[in-house]
Design a protein that fits this description.
The protein is mostly helical. It contains eight helices and two strands, in the order αααααββααα. Helix 6 packs antiparallel against helix 7.
């Protein structure tokens, strides 16, 4: 893929992310205006005393804000990628951009609370859930691929690699059964299969961090060691936003994800400046 071709795809991704931002804000306005989250169940109360405090306890509105922040974070980071690497051929950044873009699709979760007011949306629950799963698996695979290209492996078959990653993500997204009945502000799925998503995502993302770290260690590249640490912070913040649902972890996750993503890109950009 040429630099011009990658930049055109980036611009297209930025436009889609911007539309997701507008759509997610619109959904938030409708949800808040009709107080839809008040009618939905919340997670069970934690046994830890600290997590029962209002700022640390599960809150559907905190979940909504966290989900809404995903496309905005993706939009900001994609713009950073475009301006920092506009004239730089870096395959790892191309696949990292796919990971960033996949974050914006999390905003589709905001369609689930709208089922209370618009029951027809229930027909599309399973389909929307599988789309979200597809992009979650795709994000993990794109991140791992990005870390492998950080070892300075070059190829012209970028399109074929993306097709293979998409095929694997599509297959995995259809493995997990979707629970379309017990839906809160985010979708749930069969308890007996939920750890498939957790374990797969955790292992693949851990491998990506280790791969970036190994590049920094064995090639004595300080920037990649810094990038590995910042990527780890990104993934922790991403997990907090997806699975915690309290005001404290939502605010912490948004700030950490945005800051760590920017400084990750800054570290890689600094390395290419010296080339």
């Amino acid at each position: 893929m040429t630099i011009a071709g990658r930049n055109r795809i980036l611009i297209f991704g930025i436009c889609i992310a911007a539309l997701m931002v507008v759509g997610s804000i619109s959904c938030c306005i409708v949800i808040a205006a009709h107080n839809l989250l008040a009618e939905l169940p919340t997670a069970s109360e934690s046994t830890f005393r600290l997590l029962r405090l209002p700022f640390f306890a599960y809150n559907n509105y905190a979940v909504m804000i966290g989900i809404t922040a995903f496309p905005l974070i993706a939009l900001v980071l994609l713009i950073c990628v475009f301006f920092l690497f506009e004239k730089t051929h870096a395959l790892e950044i191309s696949f990292f951009s796919l990971f960033i873009f996949a974050l914006s699709v999390e905003a589709l979760q905001l369609l689930f609370p709208l089922q209370v007011r618009y029951p027809l949306l229930a027909v599309f629950t399973a389909s929307v859930a599988r789309i979200i799963f597809f992009f979650r698996f795709g994000a993990c695979l794109a991140l791992l691929t990005s870390s492998l290209f950080a070892h300075k492996t070059f190829t012209r078959e970028t399109g074929s690699i993306i097709f293979l990653l998409s095929f694997i993500a599509f297959a995995l997204s259809h493995v997990i059964p979707i629970d379309t009945i017990h839906t809160v502000s985010f979708f749930s799925f069969s308890r007996s299969y939920r750890y498939l998503l957790y374990s797969f995502s955790g292992i693949v993302c851990a491998l990506a961090v280790v791969s970036f770290l190994l590049v920094g260690i064995y090639r004595s590249i300080t920037e990649y060691r810094k990038a590995a640490i910042r990527l780890l912070v990104m993934l922790i913040a991403y997990t907090l936003l997806l699975y915690t649902g309290s005001w404290f972890f939502t605010v912490l996750g948004i700030g950490a994800l945005l800051a760590a993503g920017f400084f990750f890109l800054k570290a890689i950009h600094q390395f290419y400046l010296w080339q």
